[in-house]
Amino acid sequence: MVSSPTPKHGARTTYQDALAYMRLVEDTFKGTKYEDFIAILEEYRAKRVSLAEGAKKIQEMFKGEKELLLGFNKFVPKEYETQFPEEKREDSAPSSKRTGTYEDAQKYIELVKEKLRDQNEKLEKFFQIIMDYHSKRISIFEMINKMKELLKGDRELILGFNIFLPKEYEAQIPQEKKIF
């Protein structure tokens, strides 16, 4: 699975980053829990709670939602980030799941942002496809096909996306023929 659209740690977060993250939270927690999240943000903005208190409340609310917590980490100083122990596999059987790390996801998202920096509509569509898949509005097949179409012509972005997919869904692009 592709990680949520979040900015690289230490990078300046943008309105687009915040909007994409808010959509991800809303899609994950429709209703009361999302409203509670907004209330915590409003409390912080009104200075009724400190950053430490607000971050702790959000971390408690998002407990068990690793993707949301990782995304939240990008909007808070390092000392307020949620830390995760390294996960170890119980068995030694090979997995069909790629081993893309969170850092790989960050690098890929930065590459996408760089390559699509002058194509805001295309960049928003990229994040929307990821959120639609994450929210189970589209299947993995639809997500892959939409990404291939969206990123058509950019071999590096299409192949880079493979690291987040199970091997059996890997995008294939024929090798370019070199003429000497």
Structural class: mainly alpha
Q: Give unreliable regions as ranges.
A: 1-10, 87-96
Query: Could you tell me how far the N terminus lies from the C terminus, measured between alpha carbons in angstroms?
Result: 40 Å
Mean pLDDT: 78
CATH topology label of the largest domain: Paired amphipathic helix 2 (pah2 repeat)
Strand content: under 5%
Q: How can the largest sheet be summarized?
A: none
CATH H-tier superfamily of the largest domain:
Paired amphipathic helix
Overall number of structural domains:
2
Helix share of residues?
40-55%
Number of helices, where a helix is a run of at least 4 consecutive DSSP H or I residues:
8
Secondary-structure arrangement, i.e. CATH architecture of the largest domain = Up-down Bundle
- Give the SSE order as H and E letters: HHHHHHHH
